[in-house]
Every structure is written in structure tokens, then in C-alpha cells.
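FW: tagging you since you asked about this chain on Friday. Here's the raw sequence from the shared folder, copied in full. Didn't touch anything.
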Amino acid sequence: MVPLTPTAVAEVMDRIGVWWAVAGGWAIDLWLGEQTRDHHDIEVIIARADQPAVHAALRAEWDLRCIDPPGSGWRPWDGHPLAAPAFQLQANRGEETFDLFAETVEGTTWTFRRDPRITRPVAEVVAVSGSGIPVVRPEVQLLYMAKSNEPKHDHDRAVAMPALDAPAASWLDRALRAP
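HL: got it, structure written out here
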């Protein structure tokens, strides 16, 4: 499978008309304005409540899969809403692929899927990159990567941390120290 480019993902997601943003390593690189490493996949976040709209918009062209329950492996996604803690969806079309992660967004509040005590105004979870593609803000993405010791995540931390402004670095520090 070949992951879509960020531009191709944006073309797909913009047509659906839901809240979304590129996540993972691509979010860091798009925010920085340059590709700093190779990427073997591309992830997109969506609001958990938008799963039916995403399924309806993609099902005709894309083979949709999910991991539900978590740890069970990929299986066809029939459009049933994934309830937490499940969050992983995937869209495949021929050799093209991208992943979708369902996020908990209620009203104007986003909740971190690994710790419901960590919340943030949804408007502060996503930024628009210089290329015009919405991305998960780096401090939020780094929170997701914090427990990983994969070399790619070490790289992403190394390139993103020095570029965080003081409010972003402070938010990340508080989130990482949440009891």
C-alpha cells in the first residue's frame, strides 16, 4: 500500500465537509513547513461524531476497515460508530491508503483519548499549515508521541520541540505532568 500525500488527503477530506486534520509525523512536518523524514503512512483525525458522514462519503470508492475492539486486528468497517477506546479506521483504494483516528470532540472541547482529564478547546487542537492543510498542533501531536520510544517519534520530538512557542511548550509540559 502507498500512503496518500498530504495534498491528496486534503482533497479527499475537504469534499466530506467535516472537522479534520493531518496527524502524526506529517502534522509535524507540515507545521514546520518542510519534510524532515520519510513517512510510511498518513493519519487524519476526525471527530468521533462524524464517523457516519465519513463512512457515507467514502464507502463508494474506498475499502474501509477498522480495529474494533482495540487489539483485534483490521476488519471491514460497516459504518458502525466506533466507541472509545476504539479509534482506528483505514481507507484503501487500490494501492492508496490513509488512516483515520476518531477523536472525542463534544461541543467546543477535545478530550485526549489516553487520559480524559486532559482537555483543550477544539479550536486549539488544529492549526493550518503554511501549505493550507489543517494539522494537529505540534504540542498535541507530541503528547500523543510522548510514550513512544520509536526512532521516528524521537526525531519528531527533536525537530518540533525547539520550534514550540512558550504557550505551546507550557501546555505540553502541563499535559505530560497530569497526575
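FW: Residues 2-137 form a domain with the Beta Polymerase; domain 2 fold (CATH 3.30.460.40).
HL: agreed, and The first strand starts at residue 2 and ends at 3.
FW: great, closing this out.
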